[in-house]
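Ticket #4471: complex job returned nothing on first submit. Input attached below:
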Amino acid sequence: MKIRSAEDTRAIRAALAVGLPTAAYGISFGALATLGAGLDLWQTMVLSLVMFTGGSQFALVGVLASGGLSAWPSAVASAVLLGSRNAVYAIRMSPVIGRGLARRAVAAHLTIDESTAVSTAQGSLRSQRIGFWVTGLVVYIGWNLTTFVGAVIGDLLGDVSAYGLDAAAAAAFLGLLWPRLATLQAQAVAVAAGFVAALLTPALMPGLPVLVAALVAVIFGATNWLGSSRRSPRASSGVTS
Amino acid sequence: MTTWHVVLLASILCFGLKTLGYLVPASLLERPTPARVVDLLTVALLAALISLQTFAQGQELTLDARVPAVIVAAVMFALRVPFIVVVVSAAVVAAGIRALT
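Support reply: We reran it on our side without changes. The output follows.
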């Protein structure tokens, strides 16, 4: 099992393709936290080292930047709401990570959009594990380095979306979703979830639209609406063994 | 409440949420219906993230350089172009449109 298979290579490539552009966004975060919200370097680093969930970090400093320290309840609430999807990801990743308290504790810390997305897009349990750990570590190390850089020199680089990194992240997620759209049920869930998330964005607090979109999967899954009578072999590979 | 209190409180709560999901018993997820829900959950979450990553600007919906970039990416994935090439192309398309407009 030491030899790297084509499947392992695919998982590592996906991990880097998703992880590196995501990590680059730490520059924006570092800059916004220090210049916008007035956090010091260490407070900014604690958010990237301990909180480590980009959406929540941006939400927290975004609210503090616009509302000041007196807006702390809504800053914390926004961060928590955005972070609540990680609990859903954790449920999804739990059987992939396997046993061992220390391993599960570290895995919990690395459970974010990108590590979960890369992992669940892989076929075998082994490549799902590789996808999770490589993505999680690449983003963790990269995100913290770029947070530091952003906090120190962020104002010199300007808006990193000028480099198209936001579109790269969207394309990377699309690449992970693509192979999972083989069944009519999956296609229906994807379209419905995408619509629900977009339509609710102006109406709900940040973080909630993704959670409501997740309910689409619960409804389709529980009723097996548009589903076949038996589960595909690919679908079962992640939860057994 | 000092800034440090806010930073630490929010960080601990967010870490707690991640830990929570790992405490759900694994046997629960092996039955057919929960397994199917968990599988579709991946599809739904990815689709929601793509949608927001493409159309959302804060709490507003916008049509900007990301939309053509994602359309280009979709066409390339359909043509089975390698993952990393597609991701870089999407960034180039978005950056190019922004540089020109």
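The longest strand of chain B covers residues 56-57. Closing as resolved unless it happens again.
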